[in-house]
Design goal:
single chain; 286 residues; alpha+beta; Jelly Rolls; 8-stranded antiparallel β-sheet; 3-stranded antiparallel β-sheet; 29% helix; binds 2-oxoglutaric acid; binds fe (ii) ion
């Protein structure tokens, strides 16, 4: 009997997930959302909002987050990791650590009573609306965390998030509300504008990846990587670095190609962060 190939299955699920995302957006009336940021998300797959909060509010958020970080660092000092690849989640009383190669991702749980200003960011209506523009659904506040990235030393242990990739075959929103400036040496977010579209060339590329690398267990997902030289075959521009000042929100559709930028070892990024990934085949949005 003829078996559907991984290429066919992957092409079909990518296409259907894209349709469902479109109907979710339509039923959530996401097309009514106006403004430069909504437009940028639709056109480029990324929006950058400098001066996101009024100065006094920003200072309060920063102070609360820095206090939580200092306290976590006192109980759990940051170490160098030399084992390759993604590390397991290391759970602590304050949240958890997870390494990508030598780079540390430290996620701190929100404690609303101790962190009223940070918790207000988690409920921010603008973030919810931008999430709706892309996914036709909103980010529940409980997913929001304080997120510290400490860049490792690439010569000693490669961080796989520094390779250009897309996260999954369906759309996902991630945001970072950066509390300190992120220079080109601090591993800024890097994004290929316009790469969030499922074009014909992109679908061919997706199918080729499934053919080359397979779909583990057919159901699970793999974040396929792409070389910069391949981008022009997909009629895409070169990746853009997104260095920012503190008090800047970066929000992106990670079906688009992106990576964590190159960084000086030990450099840090402090952010309020969340991601949202609805089940890809949900056809109705809110
Ligand atoms: O940390 C970053 O700038 C991006 C890392 C990444 O690829 C991701 O979070 O999906
Ligand atoms: Fe990613």
């Amino acid at each position: 009997m003829l078996q559907p190939s991984e290429t066919t299955i992957h092409g079909a699920r990518t296409t259907v997930a894209n349709w469902c995302n479109a109907t979710r957006k339509a039923t959530a009336l996401a097309f009514l959302m106006r403004g430069d940021e909504a437009r940028s998300l639709r056109d480029n797959g990324i929006a950058v909002l400098p001066n996101f909060l009024p100065e006094d509010q920003f200072r309060r958020v920063r102070r609360e987050a820095a206090r939580a970080m200092d306290s976590a660092e006192r109980t759990t000092p940051i170490r160098e990791r030399l084992e390759p690849g993604f590390g397991a989640q290391e759970v602590h009383t304050w949240g958890f650590d997870r390494y990508d190669g030598g780079t540390l991702n430290r996620f701190i749980d929100l404690e609303p009573e101790k962190m009223p200003a940070v918790s207000a960011v988690a409920r921010d209506d603008r973030i919810s609306r931008l999430c709706r523009v892309v996914l036709g659904t909103q980010i529940p506040p409980r997913r929001t965390m304080i997120y510290l990235t400490v860049n490792g030393n690439e010569n000693r242990n490669h961080d796989i998030q520094k390779d250009l990739h897309r996260d999954s075959y369906y759309r996902k929103i991630k945001f970072w509300y950066f509390l300190d400036s992120v220079s080109v040496d601090d591993g800024p977010f890097v994004y290929v504008p316009g790469s969030h579209r499922l074009t014909r060339q992109r679908l061919i590329w997706e199918r080729e990846q499934a053919h080359k690398f397979g779909i583990p267990g057919w159901i699970r997902d793999r974040s396929y990587r792409i070389g910069e030289a391949e981008l022009s075959d997909l009629a895409l521009p070169q990746p853009q670095l997104v260095p920012v000042d503190g008090n800047t929100l970066v929000i992106a559709d990670t079906f688009g190609f992106h990576r964590r930028g190159d960084a000086l070892p030990g450099s840090r990024r402090l952010a309020i962060y969340a991601q949202k990934r609805p089940w890809p085949f949900t056809p109705f949005g809110v």
